[in-house]
């Protein structure tokens, strides 16, 4: 055996020893929002007045340390240079660190949003008002329009700004998100290697329990209406997570949102990923990555750059609060409202 062959075999053996050793040590993933790239990273940005469609998704117009070699003639767009910056961050990060950009999109306006505004937060949690049903709420006409506007925005960003499109798509199983994702991404000029074929993820759903709008439809219903969508392994026919008289606590939602990220970051090598979800769930994801609080109106979306680092140690202990009961409603708020 030649010296070069011996060296190659020795290198492989050392790598295997390291992998086996690390596999036997407790570990967890630590997430950090990498700030300084988007307006929404800055605590001084007001979510109430922020408009992602007029600010290039909030991407700050700035230079990067990778511009000199990548774009010496200053011909690339801001998004092209940012995409290269993310590529270089991953190239130099080592085996234990990875960077991903998450496009976090909230669903368009649903009938439950209109009902909550009309009846009040404590009294709106019914199956409907006799005319409109908001259990697993569907999009209103305005919600459909919001998603169409985002679709038009993506078309402009792709054509003009050369924005990197998502390499993978994930969506909540609730109807308003399934529809929003479909309207938002259908008809875009996407590369063949990254088609719009979303995967439905249970843990990407809204805060669970009590509110009927958060009680999902059956797997059969979802497949019948969205036959191209894929389901994660173990997705059940009926909703086994929604409990009518117990509401998931914030800390419990944060914990399952970390489980969601752990699952995706451990298995998905994509660097640009789309999530179509809900206000409460997006807030929980932002808590997991230690991003400043940033509420999204219906139909809004923000990208965030996330650093994930594998830590080989016992994970920190967390206090997960128990679910809480349903609020007390007035006897029949819809009847009072119709009067």
Kindly summarize this structure in a few lines:
It is built from ten helices and nine strands.
Q: What descriptive keywords fit this protein?
A:
seven-stranded mixed sheet; 10 helices; globular; 13% strand; alpha/beta; 339 residues; two-stranded antiparallel ribbon
Distance between the termini: 91 Å
Global shape = globular
* Helix and strand sequence: HEHHEHHEHEHEEHEHEEH
Instruction: Report the total helices.
Output: 10
Helical proportion, percent range: 25-40%
Topology:
Layout: H1 3-23, E1 28-33, H2 67-70, H3 78-91, E2 97-106, H4 111-119, H5 141-161, E3 168-171, H6 175-185, E4 199-200, H7 219-225, E5 230-231, E6 246-247, H8 250-267, E7 272-277, H9 279-288, E8 301-311, E9 324-325, H10 333-338
Parallel strand pairs: 2-7, 3-4, 3-7, 4-5
Antiparallel strand pairs: 1-8, 2-8, 6-9
Task: Give an account of the 3D structure.
Helices cover 36% and strands 13% of the residues. It is of the alpha/beta class and 339 residues long. The strands form two sheets. A seven-stranded mixed beta sheet has the order 1-8-2-7-3-4-5, with helices on both faces. The protein is globular and about 60 Å long.
């Amino acid at each position: 055996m030649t010296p070069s062959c011996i060296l190659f075999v020795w290198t492989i053996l050392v790598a295997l020893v390291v992998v086996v050793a690390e596999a036997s040590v407790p570990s967890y993933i630590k997430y950090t929002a990498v700030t300084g790239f988007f307006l929404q990273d800055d605590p001084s940005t007001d979510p109430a007045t922020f408009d992602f469609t007029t600010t290039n998704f909030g991407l700050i117009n700035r230079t990067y340390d990778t511009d000199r070699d990548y774009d010496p003639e200053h011909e690339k767009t801001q998004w092209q240079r940012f995409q290269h910056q993310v590529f270089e961050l991953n190239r130099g990060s080592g085996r234990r660190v990875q960077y991903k950009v998450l496009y976090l999109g909230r669903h368009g306006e649903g009938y439950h949003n209109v009902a909550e505004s009309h009846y009040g937060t404590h009294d709106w949690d019914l199956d409907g008002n006799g005319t409109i049903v908001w259990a697993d709420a569907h999009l209103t006409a305005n919600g459909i329009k919001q998603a169409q506007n985002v679709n038009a925005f993506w078309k402009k960003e792709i054509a003009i700004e050369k924005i990197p499109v998502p390499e993978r798509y994930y969506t909540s199983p609730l109807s308003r998100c399934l529809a929003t994702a479909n309207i938002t991404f259908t008809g875009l000029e996407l590369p063949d290697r990254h088609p719009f074929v979303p995967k439905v993820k249970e843990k990407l759903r809204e805060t669970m329990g009590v509110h009927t709008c958060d009680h999902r439809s059956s797997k059969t219903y979802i497949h019948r209406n969205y036959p191209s969508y894929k389901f994660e392994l173990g997705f059940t026919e009926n909703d086994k997570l929604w409990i009518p008289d117990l509401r998931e606590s914030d800390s419990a939602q944060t914990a399952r949102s970390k489980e969601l990220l752990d699952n995706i970051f451990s298995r998905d090598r994509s660097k640009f990923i789309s999530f179509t979800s809900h206000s409460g769930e997006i807030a929980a994801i932002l808590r997991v990555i230690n991003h400043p609080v940033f509420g999204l109106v219906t139909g809004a979306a923000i990208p965030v750059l996330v650093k994930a680092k594998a830590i080989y140690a016992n994970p920190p202990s967390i206090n997960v609060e128990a679910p809480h009961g349903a609020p007390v409603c007035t006897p029949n708020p819809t009847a009072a409202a119709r009067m």
